Amino acid sequence: MSNLAIASWTVGLTLGLMTLLFIFRIVLTWYPQAELNKFPFSLVYWPTEPFLAPVRKLVPPLGGVDISPIIWVGITSLLRELLVGQQGLLKMMG
User: Fold this and answer.
1) When comparing pLDDT for 16 and 94, which is higher?
2) How deeply is 27 buried, as exposed, middle or buried, from its count of CB atoms within 10 A (0-12, 13-18, 19+)?
3) pLDDT value at position 43?
4) What is the spatial distance between Cα 94 and Cα 45, in angstroms, rounded to a whole number?
5) Sequential DSSP letters for 28-82
6) CA distance 78 to 85
7) What value, to the nearest 5°, has the Cα angle with vertex 71 and ends 80 and 18?
8) Cα–Cα–Cα angle for 7, 83, 13, nearest 5°?
C-alpha cells in the first residue's frame, strides 16, 4: 500500500469521524439538560468543542439554536469530498 493510499484512507476516515461527531453534537443540542462533561457525552464534546467555540463567536445562535455544528458538518463534508472524493485531490495524485 503506497503512502498516498494510506494518507487518503487516514484523511477520509478522520473527516468522516469528525462529520459523525458534529452530527451527534447537533442531536445533543436538542437535549440542553445533557451534561456534556460526563460520559458518554464527553466522547462527543471534547473532540468537537475546539472547532465549535470560535464559530460561535462569529455566528451567534439563530432563534436560540446553535448552528455551529451544522456549519462544521458542511465544512468537513466539503473537505472530505475535495480531498478523497471520487475526483478528490488525493485520488487524482495517485
Assistant:
1) 16
2) exposed
3) 94
4) 35
5) HTT-TTS-TTSTTTHHHHHHHHHHHHHHHHHS--BTTB--HHHHHHHHHHHHHHH
6) 9
7) 45
8) 55
